C-alpha cells in the first residue's frame, strides 16, 4: 500500500477520532514483514507487544504491557503468531489514542484454530501448549462480521476500505469534559464520604482524579496497585499530594490516625484486596476509589456489587463519554465484544417459579452465544477479579464442567467445576515429597504437598472454581440446587470428593459448611489477590473420600495450636490431640528431613518433636521456640543465607528423629526417598 493512501486513511481516523484494527494472517516472517512495511512512512510510536520484536523496535513483553497503563501511544503491533494473550491485548488496546492503528499478527487463517496456543500454558493447566479452537473461531467470526476490520491473508491483496463519512471529532483541550466537570464539583464540595468512580478505559477517570488532587486546597494521598498505573494522576500532582504504595500506606494507618491528609485517592481499586481497602477507607475522611469496568485489573461491575455493597454508605460516580477517542471509535467495540467487557446481566423477575438446572457442554458456548454472555456475565458480577484469562479457560481448557439454572430465558445461577486427581501413587508421592509439582489439581496437589495427604492427589475429585447467582434470585436456594445436582452427578461417576478453595471469611466458611463441606486446610500466609487466608474444604462422596476428609480435618484441628500463632485471626477451630508424635508426624518429619517437604507444612510436627527431646538443635529452637528471625539465625550461625539455614534445619530434624528412635527413623527415611509409598 502506497504512503499517500495510508496517509489518507490516517487523516480520516484522526478527523473522526477513531482507531482501527488491521489483521495480518500468514507465516510468522511474512506477518512481521507486512507490519514493518505498513508502518513505514507513518509517524507514530509503533510499539510492538511481543516476545520476539524486530531489532530496534520500541517493544514490551506480554507480561510487562501493564507498565504502559497511564500512557498514550500512537499505533501499535500486537504479536499473536504463537499465542494470543487476551489480557495484554485488552490493556494495550486501551493505551492507543485516537488515530491509531492496532495491527494484529496471527497464524495462517485456516490453521489458526487448531494451532497450539502458547498462551494456553497460563490457563489450561496442561504441560504443553494446546489449541484454543472455540476462542479462536469466535474471534474469527467477530473479525469477519465487522467490515471496518481488515484481514489480510498471505498471498491475497491488501484492501482497506475508507471510513464512512462522520461528524468531525473535537479532541480534548485539557479542560474537564461536561461529565468530568459535574463530578469534579461534587468532589471539591465534599465534606466526607466514600466516592466510587467507575468507567471503561479511555474515559478520563484517572485524569479526573488528578484534577481533584491538583485543585483541592489541602493535602491528598494517592495510592494504586503499582506506581506506573497511577501515572495519569501523578502527572497532575502538586507538591502537596504524594504517592504511597498500598502496603506502606496501610502500615502508616496501623501506626495511628492519619491527620495530615484530606483525601485518599485509590486508582484501580478493584485490584487491591478488599480487607486492605476496608482498612484504608476507615482511616481517611474522604476517599475516592476509581476502577475500570473492564476485566484486566478486576471488573468494576463485580466490584460495585461485591465490595461497595458492603460499605455502609457510598456515592456512585460514572464516566461514560470517551476522552482518548471519539464515541464512534471502531476498535473498542471489537475488543469489548471479543472479551465480553460490556455484557450486563439481564434484569430478573424474582418469581416463585422453580429454576431449571441443566448441564452445559463446552461446545454450547459457540452454538448459543447468549448462553456464554449470560454465564460469563454472572461470573463477573459475583467475582470482581474475573478476567480474560477466565474467559480463555472457560472456552477451551480441558477438564471443565459447567452447569446453570434458569427461569424462562434468564440465567439465574452458574456453577463451574474442574476435574482433579487421578494421579498415580508414584507421582502423588513425589508431589508429597516436594520433588514434583505438575500443572493443575489445585486442591488435590495442595493437600498432598502442604497438608501431607498424597492420597488426595490419587483420588478422583471435582473442584468448584466459581459459583454465582443472579442478584435478583439470591436466597432462593439456587446455589444449593446447583451443588446438589453436581454432587449426584459426581456420585454416579464414583468420584471420591468435591472440593473448594476460598479466601477465608466467617460468612464464606458458614456458607460452605451449610452445603456439607468440611474445612481441612488453612494457609499460614495471606493471599495477595484476596488479602485473606486460603482455606480448603471437602465434601466426601465415597468411603475413601470420607477417610481422607476425616483425617485431614482431624489433622488441622490437631495442628491448630501451632498454626494459630502464624495467623493474625482466630478461626473457630478446636484444639485437639496430644503432644506426642504419631505416625502422621513421623511421615511429615521424614519428608522434611530426607525429602523436600517445606518448612511451613512441617511446623506443627517440628514443634511436637522439639518437646520430646533435650538436644540443643540450635537452629530449630531459635526459629520455632525463641522466635528469632531467619536473618538473625543466619548471622548467629555464620551461614551464607536461608538456603544454608534450611539445610541445617533438615540436618537437625534428621538428628532428632534418629535420637528419638533410630530404627523408626531409618524406616521412615526409606519411605520418604522411595518412589513408592510404603516401600
Structural commentary:
There is one protein chain. The chain is α/β, with parallel strands linked by helices. The protein has 27 helices and 21 strands. The strands form four sheets. It has a seven-stranded mixed sheet, sandwiched between helices. A six-stranded parallel sheet has the order 3-2-4-5-1-8, sandwiched between helices. A six-stranded parallel sheet has the order 11-10-12-13-9-14, covered by helices on one side. β20 and β21 (533-540) form a beta hairpin. α6 (178-188) packs across α7 (205-215) and α22 crosses α27. The longest helix has 21 residues, at 543-563.
Summed up:
The protein is of the alpha/beta class. 41% of the residues lie in helices and 17% in strands.
Produce the secondary structure layout:
Elements: H1 3-16, E1 20-25, H2 28-39, E2 47-49, E3 59-60, E4 76-79, H3 86-95, E5 101-106, E6 116-117, H4 120-123, E7 130-131, H5 133-145, E8 150-153, H6 178-188, E9 193-199, H7 205-215, E10 220-223, H8 231-234, E11 242-243, H9 246-255, E12 263-266, H10 274-281, E13 286-292, H11 300-306, E14 315-318, H12 331-339, E15 356-360, H13 364-367, H14 369-382, H15 388-396, E16 400-407, E17 410-421, H16 425-433, H17 442-449, H18 455-458, E18 460-469, H19 478-492, E19 497-503, H20 506-514, E20 518-526, E21 533-540, H21 543-563, H22 583-594, H23 599-612, H24 618-624, H25 630-636, H26 642-660, H27 662-673
Parallel strand pairs: 1-5, 1-8, 2-3, 2-4, 4-5, 9-13, 9-14, 10-11, 10-12, 12-13, 18-19
Antiparallel strand pairs: 6-7, 15-16, 16-17, 17-18, 19-21, 20-21
Helix pairs in contact: 3-12, 6-7, 11-14, 21-23, 22-23, 22-26, 22-27, 23-26, 26-27
Amino acid at each position: 500500500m502506497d504512503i499517500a493512501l495510508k496517509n489518507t486513511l490516517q487523516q480520516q481516523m484522526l478527523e473522526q477520532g477513531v482507531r482501527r484494527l488491521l489483521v495480518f494472517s500468514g507465516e510468522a516472517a511474512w506477518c512481521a514483514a507486512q507490519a514493518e512495511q505498513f508502518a513505514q512512512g507513518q509517524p507514530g510510536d509503533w510499539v510492538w507487544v511481543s516476545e520476539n520484536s524486530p531489532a530496534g523496535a520500541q517493544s514490551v513483553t506480554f507480561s510487562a504491557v501493564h507498565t504502559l497503563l497511564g500512557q498514550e501511544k500512537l499505533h501499535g503491533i500486537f504479536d499473536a503468531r504463537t499465542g494470543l494473550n487476551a489480557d495484554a491485548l485488552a490493556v494495550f488496546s486501551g493505551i492507543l489514542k485516537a488515530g491509531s492503528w492496532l495491527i494484529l499478527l496471527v497464524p495462517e487463517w485456516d490453521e489458526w484454530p487448531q494451532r497450539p496456543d502458547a498462551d494456553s500454558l497460563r490457563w489450561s493447566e496442561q504441560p504443553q501448549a494446546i489449541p484454543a479452537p472455540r476462542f479462536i473461531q469466535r474471534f474469527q467470526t467477530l473479525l469477519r462480521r465487522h467490515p471496518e476490520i481488515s484481514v489480510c491473508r498471505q498471498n491475497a491483496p491488501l484492501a482497506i476500505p475508507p471510513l464512512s463519512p462522520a461528524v468531525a471529532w473535537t479532541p480534548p483541550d485539557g479542560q474537564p469534559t461536561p461529565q468530568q466537570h459535574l463530578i469534579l464539583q461534587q468532589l471539591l464540595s465534599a465534606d466526607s464520604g466514600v466516592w466510587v468512580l467507575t468507567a471503561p478505559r479511555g474515559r478520563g477517570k484517572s485524569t479526573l482524579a488528578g484534577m481533584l488532587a491538583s485543585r483541592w486546597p489541602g493535602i491528598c494521598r494517592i495510592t494504586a496497585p503499582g506506581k506506573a498505573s497511577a501515572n495519569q494522576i501523578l502527572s497532575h500532582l502538586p507538591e502537596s499530594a504524594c504517592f504511597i504504595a498500598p502496603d506502606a500506606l496501610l502500615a502508616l494507618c496501623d501506626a495511628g490516625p492519619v491527620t495530615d491528609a484530606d483525601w485518599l485517592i485509590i486508582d484501580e481499586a478493584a485490584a487491591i484486596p478488599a480487607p486492605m481497602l476496608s482498612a484504608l477507607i476507615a482511616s481517611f475522611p474522604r476517599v475516592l476509589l476509581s476502577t475500570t469496568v473492564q476485566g484486566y485489573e478486576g471488573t468494576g461491575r463485580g466490584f460495585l456489587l461485591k465490595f461497595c455493597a458492603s460499605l455502609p454508605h457510598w456515592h456512585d460516580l460514572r464516566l461514560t463519554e470517551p476522552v482518548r477517542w471519539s464515541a464512534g471509535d471502531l476498535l473498542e467495540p471489537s475488543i469489548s465484544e471479543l472479551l465480553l467487557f460490556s455484557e450486563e446481566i439481564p434484569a430478573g423477575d424474582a418469581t416463585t417459579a422453580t429454576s431449571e438446572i441443566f448441564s452445559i457442554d463446552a461446545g454450547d458456548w459457540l452454538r448459543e452465544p447468549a448462553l456464554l454472555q449470560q454465564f460469563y456475565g454472572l461470573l463477573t458480577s459475583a467475582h470482581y477479579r474475573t478476567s480474560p484469562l477466565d474467559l480463555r479457560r472457560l472456552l477451551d481448557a480441558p477438564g471443565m464442567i459447567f452447569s446453570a439454572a434458569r427461569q424462562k430465558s434468564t440465567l439465574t445461577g452458574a456453577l463451574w467445576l474442574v476435574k482433579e486427581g487421578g494421579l498415580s501413587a508414584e507421582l502423588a508421592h513425589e508431589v508429597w515429597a516436594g520433588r514434583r509439582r505438575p500443572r493443575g489439581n489445585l486442591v488435590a496437589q495442595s493437600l498432598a504437598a502442604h497438608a501431607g495427604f498424597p492420597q488426595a492427589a490419587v483420588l478422583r475429585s471435582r473442584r468448584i472454581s466459581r459459583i454465582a447467582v443472579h442478584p435478583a434470585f439470591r436466597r432462593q436456594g439456587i446455589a444449593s440446587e446447583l451443588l446438589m445436582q453436581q454432587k449426584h452427578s459426581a456420585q454416579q461417576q464414583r468420584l471420591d470428593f468435591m472440593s473448594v478453595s476460598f479466601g477465608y471469611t466467617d460468612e464464606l466458611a458458614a456458607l460452605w459448611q451449610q452445603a456439607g463441606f468440611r474445612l481441612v486446610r488453612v494457609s499460614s500466609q495471606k493471599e495477595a489477590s484476596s488479602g485473606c487466608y486460603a482455606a480448603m474444604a471437602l465434601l466426601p462422596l465415597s468411603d475413601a473420600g470420607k477417610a481422607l476428609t476425616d483425617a485431614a480435618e482431624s489433622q488441622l484441628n490437631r495442628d491448630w495450636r501451632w498454626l494459630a500463632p502464624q495467623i493474625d485471626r482466630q478461626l473457630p477451630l478446636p484444639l485437639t490431640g496430644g503432644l506426642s508424635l504419631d505416625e502422621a508426624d513421623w511421615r511429615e518429619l521424614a519428608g522434611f528431613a530426607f525429602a523436600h517437604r517445606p518448612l511451613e507444612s512441617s511446623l506443627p510436627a517440628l514443634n511436637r518433636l522439639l518437646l520430646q527431646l533435650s538436644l540443643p538443635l540450635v537452629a530449630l529452637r531459635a526459629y520455632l521456640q525463641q522466635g528469632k528471625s531467619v536473618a538473625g539465625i543466619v548471622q548467629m550461625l555464620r551461614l551464607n543465607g536461608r538456603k544454608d539455614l534450611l539445610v541445617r534445619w533438615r540436618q537437625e530434624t534428621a538428628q532428632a528423629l534418629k535420637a528419638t528412635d533410630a530404627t523408626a527413623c531409618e524406616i521412615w527415611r526409606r519411605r520418604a526417598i522411595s518412589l513408592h509409598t510404603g516401600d
